[in-house]
Write a structure and sequence with these properties.
mainly alpha, 54% helix
Length: 194
Amino acid sequence: MTLSQPKADLQRYLQSARDALLWKLEGLSEYDVRRPLTPTGTNILGLVKHAAGVELGYFGDTFGRPFGEVVPAFEDDAEANQDMWATADESRADILALHRRVTEHADATIAELPLDAVGRVPWWPDDRSRVTLHQILVHVISDLQRHAGHTDIVRELVDGAVGLRSGNENMPPGDRAWWEGYRQRLEQAARDAG
């Protein structure tokens, strides 16, 4: 039996969520990574940009560890939802470089602080703003996995690509005809029930 190492375990799940988000960008054009495919504008590159903001806030501001650069999309006076999409002037490379710098900053926070280190989430209500690094790791993992699920759906809408991560699609085998038959069965079940 292998003994658990809580911080390493949490960091592995955090990295898995990061990897899942970034993998969904692979092989897509600039247009397709930016395409808003839901009524609220959800798009893959925007989710990656948002994830950078999540980590920046929770592993930076919460523990008094400033990032060291101004990121306009994450400032208090930013346009609503500015963190959820990339402007025409922001390249994929820009967003990925920002994401990399932010995750390096987050990883340094995680490495340098014990799991019971206390921080304060300034945008949470006072009665629950006092947190530990352990709580924030769990919170951020949950948030990034949620957004990884969003990217799964958006990517499928873009080009039909699905799966958990590169090399492990985690999907039943089936060609296009099998999936169309499967989808038709689900549609029929929904109609029969409704």
